[in-house]
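Morning, I've got a small favour to ask if you have a moment. I'm working through a protein record and want to make sense of it properly. The fold is given in discrete form, as structure tokens running alongside the sequence. Can you walk me through what the tokens say about the fold? Thanks so much in advance, here it is:
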Amino acid sequence: MYVGDEYGTISVLKFHVENRELLQLPYQILWSSLSEATGFPYSDHQPVVGILPQPFTSGNRLLIAYECGLIILWDVVEAHVIIVKGDKDLHLKDGALNFKKNADSSSPDDVVQHQLEEKEITTLCWASTDGSILAAGYIDGDILLWKTSKSTASKGQEAGPFDNVVKLQLSSVEKRLPIIVLHWWANSKSRNNSDGHLLIYGGDEIGSDEVITILTLEWSSGIETLKCVGRVDLTLSGSFADTILLPTTGATSPDEKAVLFVLMSPGQLNLFDCSTLSDLVSKEEKKVSLSAKDFPVELPTVDPSMTVTKLTQLHSDGNLTELLQETPFFKKLSAATSSGASRWPLTGGVYNHTSRAETNRIQRVFIAGYQDGSVRMWDATHPVLLLLCVLDREVKGVNTVISSASVSKIDFCFQTLRLAVGDASGLVRLYDFKHSDMGNFHVVTGTKSEVHELAQGQGPTCRAVLKLLDVRVRAIEFVNHGAKLAVGYENAKVAVLDMTSLSVLFLSDSASVGSSPLVTLIAKRFVHSDSNSKSPKQSELPENRMEELMFILTEDAKIYVIDGGNGKTYGSGPLHLKKVSTAISMYVIENNIPFSDVISKQPESSKDDATSNEPSQEMTTHDLSDTVPFLENDPSRKHFEESFILLCCKDSIRTYATKSVVHGDNKSVCKVKLDKPCCWTTTFVKDGKDGKACALLLLFQTGDIEIR
């Protein structure tokens, strides 16, 4: 990798695959050395604006362009200058080739020599497949085509200085836009390496419409015979941001079958077929507003307004991923993706030896809920998200009105391929991705349960609608591998439903959890083996009994624990802080991945806290099970005594032993005071030298982000 800097120095970097790091090699090309070798008059450092390896030289020749207009072809192996272009001794034969009417007919020779010292290069590209012609765009809107091979005179003629460069202008006006982008693709029907199409953004009159111009150029007998045989202007529907040409499979450079991507603000990506563009080019100049195919990369966030999101990993343990691909919905998507799709090569990087099946496998899904009640799902396996489906509120064949309230919480169970959607009105919808072609539709309320026969449909099916309370859903979570669904409401009530019978197992009493709004609900199963517990309730439990606990965090930073089987409250009361605080989030830490460095070194502002009776925060804790659901079947994670609760508040972070929380003991394992008010947190797993560890990310009201 060649890297040029603002001082004119070019360095060489190498990517070490095993260590995943960039190494700087002991090779540099210095501006001082080049300026001395070329005799260029500028003594100040000149920024590097472009670096292009010359085609068919095995990377041994490098073209370097400097902001001042100097162009040098450098031999990397021999370490010497081959060709110098762009000095002030520039000659043009018959003036600029101008593709506007009323072109300026004045001789450019004296003008070019006068202006060239301040003629800054803005962009460049090769304008031939063999690297013999270079196209350079300038800040004044000019385009110069430079011959980078040594001049050879035609038979009976003498080579002159004008045989080495030709100037192009898109407009004859004095003030023009800078040339921002140049791309070239060859004419596959040409008998030489020069004829082709030059894509240009910029160079037109200031204030004109935003267009991308494509010129078809021919110079069959040399650059001095250059002529433009066609021009197409592509009118853009948005503000230009960037563009790239992707060649067809197996091509070493873009050709007429390439695809042109145009990125426009805000995030709109259009796709053009270059073969279609070539057909539109004629010998007469004309403007064309060509309809492009929109590439769906922009996720709607405002219209409609996005209210909640979830990124879910479809883990490949066992045959889960294969089973997922065999479901009717995802199997159809996979087939549609693989049929007739071009496999465009990447530019740069390390080649990834993956099969077509692995490439099309859905590994991650991104789900978003909206203010209008709709839900969208994308395939998030690759950086460009692919829309899988849009789930509306309509159930075909059933006369049931579904609420259009704003979606407030969503959860996706990758074991059962079910999606739960809760909204601001208290309604919960259940979608089934595995059995999308048959089944019944259930309507469950606080007083009755109805079953309707569903007609066969396409895509995910809404299998049930549950409305137990007219209160906003603040938490929703599949429990025990999707066997149950826990729903937490804003008034801190919790409902648990059986997913087999779609019936309500219990609805907790809000009187037992106070009046503060619910923030978080977490359900966990533990192996209880503490026969020495002092709690009468705990002592009644048999050794190694599997317990299902639900931890409820309310806004006043109180943590309640209820039995996941019947909804009864554990312990004598909730865990509560001595000082009033606002809760942000809560996580359960278990024992498989070391939870190291989550609570970092205590800041100076909290030294007073360090003198308390709480143990040092440097003690080792364990992982956040919420972030590693693929370890759900590991029995070593299940022990009740080996887990912790991480409580994040607006002004502090605290860690408690789960055993203490169940008993209502307020004594924390460690505590950190925050210097700034925290407004949001999340956790993630990171790979370190000592193995995997979990990290806590905090977002503060000031906009600052910390990772602990």
About this structure: The chain has a mean pLDDT of 76. The chain has nine helices and 46 strands.
